[in-house]
Specification:
Elements: E1 10-14, H1 19-30, E2 34-39, E3 48-52, H2 58-72, E4 77-80, H3 95-123, E5 126-131, H4 135-138, H5 144-164, E6 169-176, H6 182-185, H7 189-198, H8 207-218, E7 229-232
Parallel strand pairs: 1-2, 1-4, 2-3, 4-5, 5-6, 6-7
Length: 240
């Protein structure tokens, strides 16, 4: 483990097979934790346990937790990261475009948190971290569904904090801004330049920068932080 890291915990990350989720899993593995990831397909990084799960299905989530508990012990840190987009302008957005995104991004987080909280209440310890987005509070044209789902995570974390805060359980939201990914790399240069102009830091974040903030929030040093929204956005969403 790295110097100053917290004691090893059992950590479960949803959607940990790619992107930010994979970077989060890699960071927790590097810090010496017992790491499991859920994925609908593919697998997590070396050193992690991959369990197949669909966050839109409570029975699937329950089975995944049961498997992780059997192999790694009770889940002490849960990161609800799984998410989808169905971007289109409001007037073109179908009911299904809206409800599918809410069901995965917001209701999916609810299912995961509900199942995780059982073991956390018994242990009187838990770290719940919900991966939101700068657009959850800033808004974004063409993302009414995604933005609504990501802002909903704030209310979820704050209500969970009020319910479970006296039991040694924290619930926080991390809101990344633009992240360097394969998707952003493929954007036309003009579009990339336009995005960069909006970001005071003048650059995108790396997925590792988001992962390190999440790992810190899960640690012992952040035990008195709960119901917070931590932006990792280079100043893009200031004041929100």
């Amino acid at each position: 483990m790295t110097t100053g890291a917290s004691i090893p915990r059992t950590v479960l990350i949803t959607g940990g097979n790619r992107g930010i989720g994979r970077a989060i899993a890699e960071e927790f593995v590097a810090q010496g934790h017992r790491v499991a990831v859920t994925a609908r397909s593919g697998s997590g990084p070396d050193g992690s346990l991959t369990v197949v799960a669909d966050v839109t299905d409570a029975a699937s989530i329950d089975a995944a937790f049961t498997e992780v508990e059997a192999q790694l012990g009770p889940v002490e840190v849960v990161i609800a990261n799984a998410g989808i987009t169905r971007d289109t302008l409001l007037l073109r957005m179908s009911e299904e475009d809206f409800t599918d995104v809410i069901d995965t991004n917001l209701s999916g987080a609810f299912r995961v948190v509900k199942r995780a909280s059982k073991g956390m209440l018994k242990a009187r310890f838990g770290r719940i971290i919900l991966v939101s987005s700068v657009v959850g509070l800033l808004g974004s044209a063409g993302q009414v569904n995604y933005s609504a789902s990501k802002s909903g995570l704030v209310g979820l974390a704050r209500s969970v904090t009020r319910e479970l805060g006296s039991r040694g359980i924290t619930a926080n939201v991390v809101a990344p801004g633009f992240i360097e990914t394969d998707m952003t790399a493929e954007l036309p240069q003009e579009q990339q330049d336009a995005y960069l102009k909006q970001i005071p830091a003048g650059r995108y974040a790396s997925a590792q920068e988001v992962a390190k903030v999440i790992a810190w929030l899960a640690g012992d040093d952040a035990g008195y932080i709960s119901g917070a929204v931590i932006p990792v956005d280079g100043g893009l969403g200031m004041g929100h």
